[in-house]
Amino acid sequence: MRVVLTGGGTGGHIYPALALAEELRRHDPHVNLLYVGSRTGLEGRIVPAAGIPFVAIPARGLVGKSMMDRVRGVAALLQGMAAARKILTDARPWVVVGTGGYVSGPVGMMAAIMGIPLIVHEQNAFPSVTNRLLSPRAAAVAVPFPAVGDAFPRARRVVVTGNPVRPAILAADGREARRQLALDGFRRVVLVTSGSRGAQRINEAAHALAASLPEDTALLWVTGERYYDDVLARLQEAGLAPGPPGPLRIRPYLEEMELALAAADLAVTRAGGISLAEVTARGLPAVVVPSPHVTHDHQRHNARVLAGAGAAVMLEDDQCTGEALARIVGQLLADEERLAAMAAASGALGVPDAARRLAQLVLETARQPAPRRR
Questions:
Q1: Do 18 and 125 sit in the same domain of this protein?
Q2: pLDDT tens-digit profile of 221-265?
Q3: Which of 145, 102, 126 is nearest to 299 (CA)?
Q4: DSSP string, 292-326
């Protein structure tokens, strides 16, 4: 079987594709995979490191851009479609899977023109423009929650698959994770994270949290690389030195995020689709602070799904002060009954087998007769 994956710009579009690739390889070790991304997105570094052949095409964003940038974006779209046609002609895929981001637009459009079955996977509660435009031409649209299907009224088929997460996220053992992170001496662990780049608002607020932890609670704080030095300096000035035997563990970045999620009793996080998929797959209660700097404000929509289900407390970015964050976390840690109820609600939202569901959709689509199989 030959499958082309496309999507990129951010990890939220890349990691679902990688989780799908891993599941397809588990099903068929001889599956032929090709990833089509952009020259400037994170996928150019992440995908080859995962052992998947990668090729780049021209692509630029159009939404929220100036008129001149839109003109350049349209030119890149046409160039990308021409490049995608050659790639798809040479690769002869049975299925193309697009996970969003502007690079998936020209690839998905060309797949539809060439009669190659297309699957669109949406990670967020509010769909991207690219996925909405591609949905009427797709064989199926995969969504994270049932209600998201309403945003695709012209889709031929909508399937609730959830968001695929890496198997390591599901397999990590909490006790072993605490041992590896030097946290096994504490009864509870609070995880603060805001993505690989970090978020100034959350980092600023987390200083108050670090100073107000209960004695039996540790703080695992992933700052993002550009904020790490400043966070460390401020903590040292305040006499809050990180590291054993104290309760603070400060990291600029954590490759083994599965350890952090397994070790934690409560997470403070942004509300990206994949971040929340990992949180709910682990059944972890959370305080979610949606970023106001994302297209279509989709993180707020994601956060509302968790908050509405009782799995999280939503704290608006402009209200995320040190005082507010410390108060909310303190209240949750002091109310074990509520924390347990939130954990149960989080687990109920999680789809641990999302990668299997999405892979099954790919396999079903690949087996269906297509007008042309190039």
A1: yes
A2: 999 999 999 999 999 999 998 999 999 999 999 889 999 999 999
A3: 126
A4: SSSGGGHHHHHHHHHHHHTSEEE--GGG--HHHHH
DSSP reduced 3-state for 100: coil
Angle in degrees, 0-180, between the axes of helices 67-91 and 104-113, rounded to the nearest 10:
50
Nearest to 119 by CA among 105, 129, 130, 134: 134
Angle at the Cα of 195 from the Cα atoms of 164 and 275, rounded to 5 degrees: 30
Token pair belonging to 317: 């970015």
Which domain CATH number covers 339?
Answer: 3.40.50.2000
The whole-angstrom separation of Cα 322 and Cα 201 is 9
Within 152-216, strands assigned E span: 158-160, 188-193
Asked if the structure places residue 374 within a domain, the reply is no
How is residue 121 written in tokens? Answer: 């996977």
Q: How far apart are CA 232 and CA 297, in angstroms?
A: 31
pTM here is 0.88
- Spatial distance between the Cα atoms of 195 and 275, rounded to a whole number of angstroms: 8
DSSP annotation of 40 reads S
* 373, part of any domain: no
Cα end-to-end distance, the chain, whole Å: 12
Q: Both 153 and 282 in a single domain?
A: no
The sheet with strand 32-38 has its strands ordered as: 54-57, 32-38, 2-6, 95-98, 118-121, 140-143, 158-160
pLDDT in tens, 262-304: 999 999 999 999 999 999 999 999 999 999 988 778 999 999 9
